[in-house]
């Protein structure tokens, strides 16, 4: 799906998502990605665990991570929610489309947000 928001200068904006990957600030990524305000990286999650999301913790300066779980959202495991909370990070899980749109809105509001996104397979 094509998204057409305006991009704050120097910020990573999710422009497109689909079954094979994402376009973020003009760059196409195949497969899952981690999107931060200042950069986007390819991501190969073994699972949605604190270990799999370690790059979010290491990045620092994030208050909220949006988990895009493909075509369907789902609950966040209590252990993951607790582990991220210990680092001052709240987590919300939803379908990938909703996560992309929500990330763009929160980024435009200068919120300290990141997204961990799976394609919409």
Number of strands: 8
Percent in helix = 10-25%
- What's the number of domains? 1
> Using only CA atoms, what is the Rg?
13 Å
Helix vs. strand class: alpha/beta
- Average of pLDDT: 91
| Shape category | globular
**Separation of termini?**
13 Å
Give me the strand/helix succession. EEEEEHEHEHE
Second-tier CATH architecture: 3-Layer(aba) Sandwich
Q: Tally the helices: what do you get?
A: 3
Q: Detail the poorly predicted runs.
A: none
Q: Mind telling me the CATH superfamily name?
A: MTH938-like
Kindly list the characteristics that best describe this protein:
5-stranded mixed sheet, 3-stranded antiparallel sheet, 8 strands, 121 residues, 22% helix, single chain
Could you please describe the fold and organization of this structure?
This protein has helices at residues 54-59, 78-85, 96-108; strands at 14-17, 21-24, 27-30, 33-35, 40-42, 64-69, 90-94, 113-118. The chain has a single domain (14-118), classed as Hypothetical Protein Mth938, Chain: A. It is α/β, with parallel strands linked by helices and 121 residues long. The strands form 2 sheets. A 5-stranded mixed sheet has the order 5-4-8-6-7, sandwiched between helices. Strands 1-2-3 form a 3-stranded antiparallel sheet, with helices on one face. β4 and β5 form a beta hairpin. It contains 3 helices and 8 strands; from the N terminus they run βββββαβαβαβ. The chain is globular and about 35 Å long.
């Amino acid at each position: 799906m094509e998204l057409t928001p305006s991009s704050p200068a120097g910020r990573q904006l999710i422009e497109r998502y689909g079954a094979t990957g994402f376009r973020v600030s003009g760059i196409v990524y195949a497969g899952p990605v981690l999107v931060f305000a200042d950069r986007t990286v390819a991501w190969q999650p073994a699972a949605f665990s604190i270990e799999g999301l370690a790059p979010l913790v290491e990045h620092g300066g994030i208050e909220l991570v949006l988990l895009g779980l493909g075509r369907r959202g789902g609950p966040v495991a209590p252990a993951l929610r607790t582990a991220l909370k210990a680092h001052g990070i709240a987590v919300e899980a939803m379908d990938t489309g909703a996560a992309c749109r929500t990330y763009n809105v929160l980024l435009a509001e200068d919120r300290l947000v990141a997204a961990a996104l799976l394609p919409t397979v």
